[in-house]
Write a structure and sequence with these properties.
- The chain is 4% helix and 43% strand.
- By secondary structure, the protein is mostly beta strands.
- The chain has a single domain, classed as Sandwich (Jelly Rolls).
- Strand 13 and strand 14 form a beta hairpin.
- The longest helix has 8 residues.
- The chain is globular, with a radius of gyration of 18 Å.
- The two termini are 35 Å apart.
- The mean pLDDT is 95.
């Protein structure tokens, strides 16, 4: 598990492209038979990929977290973006098709990940955050979610937002997790943009052709920066930073949030005139 530390907004005004990428971009999420996790000190979120191919995998990071097992004081959300898989949560099996999600509550001792087909392995993307209360595990099927449909073709931002870990779907302490799909012909997400003064956010971009790139914008509205992102890479967005992207083609991204407020629409809008 790699660690990323928190950054003051004044600091990044002096960052080179390389340093900006080192601090806020995670380039490798999924590897065969590996658990790749990143611990960010921004609201202490842990995120990353679990990709079982031939092996059954589990997360065992109790020493790094100062606990006896990974979810002793944490909750976790999972979305599978690969082939069909299975998750075993304290002895209960859950079939995980592509786009299926799972919320796992604090106090869960054993979580295992398996693929059904080694030629088309599952890719489990996880977000985990500190938790103060134990809520039950909930399986989330994308087909049972009524998406929010936002944007206009003329603005190149037509998209469907699927809320997985959200008060309308299941209870959580502070985690919110969902998936946004852009329609063909659309390229922008979250523009006009906003900040989340009361919570941070992590984006995982995927469903992209090898040559497709995302220009992910971050920084304070008055002094923006950008990251150039490939398929299945993730960007960390502190609460003071905008988080918005435009692609060379349409794409899908998973957003995960945690912080003071669990209200999805608790955001601070940024006027287009204020962006620089």
């Amino acid at each position: 598990m790699q660690t990323r530390y928190a950054n003051h907004p004044e600091d990044i005004k002096n960052y080179t492209t390389e340093k900006l990428r080192d601090q806020f971009l995670v380039e490798k999420i999924f590897e065969n038979d590996q658990v790749n996790l990143t611990y960010t000190h921004v609201d202490r979120m842990i995120f990353g990929g679990v990709m079982p191919v031939k092996e059954k995998l589990s997360i065992s990071l109790s020493k790094e977290l100062g606990v006896n097992y990974f979810l002793e004081r944490r909750e976790m959300g999972v979305i599978n973006i690969g082939g069909e898989g299975i998750m075993i949560v304290d002895g209960t099996e859950y079939d995980m098709k592509c786009r299926d999600g799972l919320y796992i509550g604090k106090g869960t001792k054993e979580v295992y990940f398996r693929s059904k087909n080694i030629n088309n392995p599952a890719k489990f993307y996880i977000n985990s955050v500190p938790a103060h209360h134990m809520y039950p595990t909930v399986k989330i099927d994308i087909n049972n979610i009524e998406p929010l449909r936002l944007g206009e073709p003329s603005q190149l931002n037509q998209r469907a937002i699927y809320q997985y870990v959200h008060p309308n779907v299941c209870q959580s302490c502070q985690l919110q997790l969902g998936l946004t799909m852009l329609e063909a012909g659309s390229a922008w997400n979250t523009m006009p943009c906003h900040t989340h003064e009361r919570r941070m956010e992590v984006y995982l971009y995927f469903d992209m052709a090898p040559e497709t790139r995302i220009f992910h914008f971050m920084g304070e509205p008055s002094e923006t920066r950008h990251l150039v992102i490939k398929n299945e890479q993730a960007a960390i967005s502190p609460s003071w930073s905008i988080h918005s992207g435009v692609g060379t083609s349409n794409y899908t991204f998973i957003w995960g949030m945690c912080g003071e407020n669990i209200s999805y629409d608790d955001m601070d809008a940024v006027k287009m005139d204020d962006l620089k």
